[in-house]
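Incident log, structure service

09:12 report received: a user says their structure output differs between two submissions of the same chain.
09:20 pulled the input from the user's history:
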Amino acid sequence: MEEMTLKSAIQVAQLSELTETDRQLIDMAIEGTNRSYAPYSHFCVGAALLLANGKMIIGCNQENAAFPAGICAERAAIFAAGAQYPDQPVIALAITARNTKGELIDEPASPCGPCRQVLIETETRFKHPVRILLYGRKRTFVINSIKELMPLSFTEF
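09:34 re-ran on a clean worker, output below:
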């Protein structure tokens, strides 16, 4: 039997080290947390993405008492972009959250499994990596492709 070691390349940055566009996306993701509807978890997530045409789209989580009927911020943004600009690749996606006290989180939150799968499909569909910014007040993780978080992903054959 052979063992395989998989490694992920994730940059750790302070907000001041990011580009103006990255900071703008993070600000929009923070705005998304204010638009969140999270009466059950009280965990408000915001996302903002940049399309190849320069348009930026905000998404936020929307909960529902019938839990499968809700949607995460990442998918809300990606699906809104797909509805409005179906031929535009997603270039970058910023994600942040507020905790149950309503404060921005200190450490970055990572996308859930279904959101990771949607990101894999988005990269595969457009044959272009999505740069992911996971924002926390203490630091931001910069990831050049969702494949860094899911090296053994489920994709089309």
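09:41 both user submissions now match this output. Likely a transient worker issue. Closing.
09:42 reviewer note: Strands lie at 10-13, 44-51, 56-60, 90-98, 131-135, 140-143. The mean pLDDT is 95.
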